[in-house]
Amino acid sequence: MSAREQGPPVRDADILASSGAQAAGEAAAAVRRLAARELPAPAAVIVLGSGLGGLAQRIDDAVRIPFHDVPGFPMATVAGHAGALILGRLAARPVLCLAGRFHIYEGHAPQVAAFPVRVAHALGARTLVVSNAAGGIRRTFTPGTLMRIEDHINLMMRHPLAGPVQPGEARFPDMSRPYDAALASLAHAVAREQGTRLEVGVYCALTGPTYETPAEVRMLERLGADAVGMSTVPEVLVARALGMRVLGISCITNAAAGYTGQPLSHDEVIESTREAAGRFEALVEGVVARL
């Protein structure tokens, strides 16, 4: 196919325009039309990482909208990501659930990876519960461990807030406490009641899609990371620019490269999240019930 047949190249300005505040408002309006019913402001927007989509089955009175029907949403292409926006009630509270996400390693700009958070905010959400599957760097972590994200290290080298400041967003968001202290306390209270062990640690975000080398894992350990993955941080950055509260949960799916001598695979990630899914789902539902 010739360059002319392919059409003009996508410019950075086009990406920014298609994933900014105005585009988010238009996408939110489309979601309301597609839902074909009155939508209350969500108590939380919940982003489900690889293999953690089972929580969507707990949502009552659910309306399911495929990503590709929402303006500005690409197709979800990664195994373990259903690729749907789900509206309904969890623990009797209105929620917006994103069953899957967009990753920079799929070729998306960071603004696109974080765009669903802007749409959720336009729909009235003010709390973000974000989850991911992550490799365990802390040597005491075992597959299936749930870790509350206390802080993060952004090594993606690309930022979703780059470009013109969007209406309603801070130009220089304070990141001294990116994850909300009250939500953290609530998560631990729910975990104790449920008999679930909830660890606390620092999540490091890399672009991917390759897993880390043993040398990279040793470097990240020295930098203070407890877990490593390829998502989450773009969404958190935009949420904080919008003034949203954030709770982050990582499901540790494997020991990072070099710790066991075994090769890593995405199939292992999905299998490990299946084993932890029940505890994760109960924890998030318990938190939402008390928002």
Would you kindly provide a written description of the structure presented here, covering whatever features stand out?
With 291 residues, the protein is of the alpha/beta class. The chain has one domain (3-289): Rossmann fold. Helices cover 33% and strands 23% of the residues. It has eight helices and nine strands. It has helices spanning 3-6, 12-18, 21-35, 110-122, 181-194, 214-223, 233-241, 266-289; strands at residues 44-48, 60-66, 84-90, 93-99, 127-136, 146-154, 198-205, 227-229, 245-255. A five-stranded mixed beta barrel has the order 5-8-7-6-9. A hairpin with a 2-residue loop joins strand 3 (84-90) and strand 4 (93-99). It is globular. Mean pLDDT is 90; it is low at 1-10.
The CATH fourth-level homologous superfamily: Nucleoside phosphorylase domain
User: CATH top level?
Assistant: Alpha Beta
Computed structural class: alpha/beta
Strand content: 15-25%
How does the overall form come out from the CA principal axes? globular
Number of domains: 1
Largest sheet: 5 strands, mixed, barrel
Q: Helicity, in percent?
A: 25-40%
